[in-house]
Specification:
Layout lengths: L1 H6 L9 H7 L5 E7 L5 E7 L1 H10 L3 E4 L4 E4 L8 E8 L6 E7 L21 E3 L5 E3 L3
Parallel strand pairs: 1-6
Antiparallel strand pairs: 1-2, 3-4, 5-6, 7-8
GO molecular function, one term: phosphoribosyl-AMP cyclohydrolase activity
Pfam families: PRA-CH
Keywords: Amino-acid biosynthesis, Histidine biosynthesis, Hydrolase
C-alpha cells in the first residue's frame, strides 16, 4: 500500500489528514522545512512545544509525529538530518518555517531510481487526467 501511495501514479489525496492530526492529542502547528540555498520546499510536518524547543536547542529540524505520537528528529534513523539555519513565524503565529540545510543527500524517506533519498517530499506533480508524474525519477 505505501509503495503504491509513494511511488504510484494514482492520485489518492488524504483529505482527512487534519482530522487525524487533531486526534493525536497534542497541540501542534504546521511546519514547512525549506532548503535555504535553493528555496525548495522539503517537508511539511508538525511541531509541538517539545519539538520546537529541541529544534532551537540542537539546531536540527525536529517535528512531532502525529501518527506515532512521538518526537521525530529528522535524520535520527536515516542520517538525513536537516541542519537549522533559522525559524520563522507567520503573521498569525499559527505556522512555522524552518530554513534548513540538507546535511547529506536528501530529506524524503523515499528513494529515487539510484536508491538515494529524494531531496524533498514534493517529487511528483498532478499531470494529465489527474495522474501523478515524477519530477525527479
Amino acid at each position: 500500500m505505501a509503495k503504491e501511495l509513494e511511488e504510484g501514479r494514482k492520485l489518492e489525496l488524504d483529505f482527512g489528514k487534519l482530522k487525524k492530526v487533531a486526534r493525536c492529542g497534542e497541540e501542534v502547528l504546521p511546519v514547512v522545512a525549506q532548503e535555504v540555498g535553493t528555496g525548495e520546499v522539503l517537508i511539511l510536518g508538525y511541531a509541538n512545544r517539545q519539538a520546537l524547543d529541541y529544534t532551537l536547542k540542537n539546531r536540527v529540524a525536529c517535528f512531532w509525529s502525529t501518527s506515532r505520537n512521538e518526537l521525530w528528529i529528522k535524520g535520527a534513523t536515516s542520517g538525513e538530518f536537516l541542519d537549522l539555519v533559522e525559524v520563522r513565524v507567520n503573521c498569525e503565529q499559527n505556522s512555522l518555517l524552518y530554513l534548513v540545510k540538507v546535511r547529506n543527500v536528501g530529506a524524503c524517506h523515499t528513494k529515487n531510481q539510484k536508491n538515494e533519498p529524494r531531496m524533498g517530499c514534493y517529487y511528483r506533480k498532478i499531470g494529465d487526467q489527474g495522474r501523478l508524474e515524477n519530477l525527479n525519477p
